[in-house]
Amino acid sequence: IAFMALSPVRRSAGCLAGLALSVLLVTACEPLGGAGADGPGAGGSTTSSGPASAAPSGAASGSGDGAGDLASSAAAAASSMANDPSPAASKPPLGTVPPAWLGKRPLPETADGFGVRQPTPPELRNRRFTLPDTVPMLPGRGFRSTVVTPAPAAVIARSTWEPGCPVGVADLAWIRLTFRGFDGARHTGELLVNRSVADDMVTVFQDLWDQRFPLEEMRVTRRDELDAPPTGDGNNTSAFVCRVTVGSTSYSQHAYGLAVDVNEFQNPYIKGALLLPELAGAYLDRGRVRPGMLTPAAIAAFGKVGWEWGGNWNSLKDLHHFSRNNK
Predict the structure, then answer these.
(1) Cα dihedral 29/35/36/38 (nearest 10)
(2) Is the predicted pLDDT of residue 148 greater than 90, yes or no?
(3) Residue 177: CB partners within 8 Å, gap ≥ 6?
(4) Helix, strand, or coil here: 164?
(5) Nearest-CA neighbor of 24 among 83, 64, 70?
(6) Which end of the chain is more exposed for a tag (fewer CB within 10 A), N or C?
(7) Measuring CA to CA, which residue among 79, 95, 146, 34 is closest to residue 283?
(8) 18's torsion region: left (phi>0), alpha (psi -120 to 50) or beta?
(9) DSSP secondary structure string, 250-310?
(10) Which segments of 131-263 does DSSP mark as H helices, in order?
C-alpha cells in the first residue's frame, strides 16, 4: 500500500470532508421525523458555538434539519480549501532563491579548460538573491569597515596565495566591510587586497553602500576553487586571486591584489565565443537592466579613486573587472 504525503491545506480539506460524511451518517441513522422519545433530541436540543452554528448565507428558512445544513457547509468548505490553496504555498519568483544545484553541476569542458557555454537557466535570468555571509557581521548600523595589515595568517591560509605569487603576504591587507544584499539587508563581506589600495577600496564600497548597489556575496577566493571543474554560475565579488590572466601566461592584476571583480554573473566577461561565467549569456543584453548590473554611478565610484573599468576595453569586454592600471 502506498501512502502519499498531503499538504496541510489538503489535510484540512480531508478533515472537513470527513466531518461532513460523519454528520450525514448520523443523520441517516436517526428515525424519520426527528429524534424518538429515547433519542438525544427528546426534550432537548443540540447546540454548537462559533461560525459553524450559523446558517449558510442565503439558506431558505426551514429547508432542512441542522445536521443537513452543517454537512452542506462542511462539504463546501472542504471543496473550497482543496481548490484554493493558501498563497503561502506558492513558489517564490524565479531568481529570488538560489537553486539547489547552484555550484554543483560541472559543465563539459573545452580544450582550454573552460566550461562549454550554455543557455542561462530560467532561475538565473534575473538573478537577485544573496548567499549567506561567510564572516561575522560587523557591529553597529549602516556602513562599517575594518582593515588589518598585514592580513592575518589564517586568512592567507584559506586564500589562493602560495610561494611564488607576485606579491608577498606582508603586502596584503584584509578588509571586512558591510554591503547591501539583493534582499535589501545589511551584510558583511571580506576582501584581500594590496595594502597600497586598501583605503581606496573602503571608499569605493562605502560609495556603493550609499547607492544601495546590491551584491550577492563577498568573500576571499579559495585555492580549491581554482582547481574545481567549471559550473558557470559563480557570482562572487572578490579581489586577490593568485592566477594568470585569462588566455595568457602572465599574472593577472588580481594576483597583485590590485583588481576587483563585482557581481561577475550579472557583469560577465566576453571575448569572441568565450563567455565567463559560462551560463551568464542572458546578461549580455545590457539594455535590459536588472539588479546587480553595474550602473554608471557604480562604475564612477571606482573612477573616483583612479581605477579603470574592463567594460571600456576594445579587444574584449570584462564587465565585472576594475583595476588600478587598466589591465
Answers:
(1) 90
(2) yes
(3) 138, 143, 144, 145, 146, 188, 189, 190, 191, 202, 205, 206, 218
(4) coil
(5) 70
(6) N
(7) 95
(8) alpha
(9) SBPGGGGT-EEE--TTTS-EEETTEEESTT-GGGG-TTS--TTSPPHHHHHHHHTTT-EEG
(10) 153-157, 198-211, 223-227
Q: Is the distance from CB of 179 to CB of 245 less than 8 angstroms?
A: no
Place of cell 471543496: 79
Predicted confidence at residue 75, as pLDDT, reads: 55
Q: Name residue, grid cell 568573500.
A: 219
Alpha carbons 235 and 194: distance in angstroms, whole number: 22
Q: How far apart are CA 166 and CA 32, in angstroms?
A: 97
Quote the CA–CA distance of 210 and 76 in Å, as a whole number: 54
Distance CA 224, CA 179 (A): 26
Residue type, 244: V
Whole-structure pTM value: 0.73
What pLDDT score does 59 carry?
A: 38
Alpha carbons 317 and 272: distance in angstroms, whole number:
10
What residues contact 128, with CB distance under 8 A and at least 6 apart? 95, 96, 182, 214, 290, 291, 292
pLDDT at 56: 38
Grid coordinates in use for 107?
559543465
Task: Kindly state the cell numbers that stand for 128.
Answer: 537577485
